[in-house]
Amino acid sequence: MQSYQCSPLSTPEGIVSTFKQCAKLQKDKDLNKFVSVVVLDEIGLAEDSPLMPLKTLHPLLEDGTATTVETGTTSDHHRVGFIGLSNWALDPAKMNRGIMLSRGVPSEDELCDSARGICSGNKDIQSRLEDCIWRLCNGYFDLYKRQSDSKTLQKSQKDEFFGLRDFY
Question: Tens digits of per-residue pLDDT, 134-147?
Answer without folding.
Answer: 999 999 988 888 88
